[in-house]
Amino acid sequence: MADQPHRDPQRIEPAGTNDAIPGLRKFPPQGEAVIHQVNWLGLKTLYMKEVRRFFKVQTQTIWAPAVTTLLFLVIFTVAMGRGDRQVLGVNFATFVAPGLIVMGMMQNAFANASFSFLSGKLQGTIIDFLMPPLTEAELMGAMIAAAMTRAVLVGCALALLMAFWPGVSLHVAHPWAVAWFGLMGALFLSLLGFLSSIWADKFDHNAAITSFVIAPLSLLSGTFYVIDNLAPAFQTVSRLNPFFYVISGFRFGFLGQSDIGSTNMAVLHSALGLGVLNLVLGVVTYLVLRSGWKLKS
């Protein structure tokens, strides 16, 4: 009729209103899922946002850590590498280089994963992470993937710089070990960093974890020595340190030998063990994130 208001059939109105009007699109009922599969677009968007965040200041987030770690190589090579000292059949610089590369990767994976989420909590922008249509697994996946990306970039920068240092040979004997232990080490520290950012109430808490947990475990994991030189009690302690298996396994990928065990099967067992450890830690981190602990008031 002429006195009836004109309605656009493409207009979206809330569900429950004008239900009798055919052809009128409606909002789904409140709480009903619209995205029934993985939100790949949202996951990619958050991942790219995190990568661009640290890549904008790549001098501080990639090159500065690489140069700082390179100084360890310079200092220890000068102090302990004189006289053509041999460790595991290679000169000291070649022995210590792979350990320093993966150590830098792990430390920066932790730093990236522990910063962004915590800064959102402290600055009141955590809602930007929690409100988008992302599941807890998608949110965690994007954040962890970005942290691992930074770790890989730092590792590549370190390898590039060390390639120019006299006496260092980065010939790869087992590419699978380099890839597996490098990625598993980055994943392990990314998960720890993300879990730390959920737990922490201020940046001092994260700094304490870095200073009193991450740094000691990294430096006391056989980066600069083989654990066979230690007393039996300290060898046992070293073998309880997961960082030891990451560093020694990564070194095995370059040198073809390590102090994990006398056979390649021992290295394979270590690789599988790291995979299981990361799986367990990932489940724990997911459950903590899903609970809303320290995230929801």
From TrEMBL:
Membrane topology: Multi-pass membrane protein
Region feature Disordered, mapped onto this chain: 1-23
Coiled-coil annotated spans: none
Membrane-crossing segments per the record: 62-80, 92-118, 139-165, 177-200, 207-227, 266-289
Keywords carried by this UniProt record: Cell membrane, Membrane, Transmembrane, Transmembrane helix, Transport
Compartmental location: Cell inner membrane; Membrane
ABC transmembrane type-2 domain mapped to chain residues: 56-292
InterPro entries according to UniProt: ABC-2_transport_permease, ABC2_TM, ABC2_TM_bact-type, ABC_2_transport
Superkingdom as given in the UniProt entry: Bacteria
Amino acid composition bias (Basic and acidic residues), ranges on this chain: 1-11
UniProt-listed Pfam families: ABC2_membrane
UniProt similarity note: Belongs to the ABC-2 integral membrane protein family.
Record-linked PANTHER family: INNER MEMBRANE TRANSPORT PERMEASE YADH-RELATED (PTHR43332), TRANSPORT PERMEASE PROTEIN (PTHR43332:SF1)
Name this polypeptide is given: Transport permease protein
Species of origin: Novosphingobium anseongense
Lineage of the species this protein comes from: Bacteria, Pseudomonadati, Pseudomonadota, Alphaproteobacteria, Sphingomonadales
